[in-house]
Amino acid sequence: MTSDIMIPFYQALTEDVTALSAPQDSLQETRREALERYTATGLPTLKTEAWRFTNIQRFLKEYPYELLSTPATTTATVADEAAIAGLDSYRVVLVNGHLQADLSSLPAGKGISIGAMSAFAETPGFVKWFNSQKHLAGESLANLNTALFADGLYIELQANVALEKPIHLVHVYTSDRHAFVQPRHLWILHRGATATVIESTVHPKQEAVAFANSVTEVVVEDNAELWHYNVQQGADNFRQVNTTAAQQQKDSRYHNFNFTLPNTPFTRNNLSVVLNGSNTETNLKGLYLATGSQHIDNHTFMDHLVPHCNSNEHYKGVLLDTANAVFTGRIHVHQEAQKTNAFQQNNNLLLGDKATINSQPQLEIYADDVKCSHGFTAGQFSEEAMFYLRARGIGEDAAKALLVNAFSHDVTDEIAVPALQEYIQGQIEAIMNI
Q1: Model confidence pLDDT, tens digit, residues 64-77
Q2: Spatial contact of 197 and 226, defined as CB atoms under 8 Å apart
């Protein structure tokens, strides 16, 4: 059921799938199956349960987007806009999803495979894990990505490999015409491997608008650990849907941090984690600061399949002006997943007179020996705290910045990279002092 506004997209999509899928392409059948699933469901509407507070079609109608899969390049000056002071890291620059090698410094060594995903399409790791996350097939936009993606970042760390420094992944989205781009990434950490990935985005000043529909698959095998940060710096000429699908094996740890900052009119983050092995730990942290008429939608899904796993989720939002946000946090504990500990919290500061939040915590529990909870709050600044700060000679803007920073500490204090923690706290202060 392809919607009217997507008919030009669909026609172009069919042509692009044909162009991308040469007869010898091992993904040809995968792409066509994804296209068929997308065609059957069409784009989400307000009648789609998971999208009932987010009208994506309104944002897709704004501009005559063109499907874009051809490589582009950028300059070092543009990529440097994502710099994080004091961060000692490897840097990987992707332009519309394509690796720009001359601006990248890739880690190398035995057991480390990092580069353009197209270069690894025939490797055993790619063949085994690509498109293996069970929740992707049910996501309309993820199917669109699977059918159309051209490239992205592939990471594979063999057993017990530990990266010495974080990977700073800089996404640059640029085009001289309104573009609909489909980055696709696959990251695999084998048994005992550890890594930190920090994502940033850069949007050069231009009149054309980019709409990114990205998908990242994450595999964390036995006793492996991944720290995954996504810093979504905004721009008026950018819209985004980010789908992250992770799966964990026995004794693994996955930490996901999502920071959505002002200016991007539309952001939807889909995050699902499937716990396939016992004794895993999952931490999902989120902070969104929205200004103007921004719309930010965080949709998370914790899928507990096996016993003795722990998950902790805490998302916090600060909404100014007429901004609106959506938070949906679903925890599904299957009958076999006894001894599960799963906790979820969503707190919001509504600082704009017309700012709104729609929060939907959801627990679906079929096991009887578990500890699970969820909570939601929405409020404004404490008048007592404001009075305390103002009475000590602190100006109103500075007092608000201090209170927002204090409100955010539950999330920012958990950042394990000091330079990134300082950067995020600085961003909060800069936003609140506007």
Answers
A1: 888 876 788 999 99
A2: yes
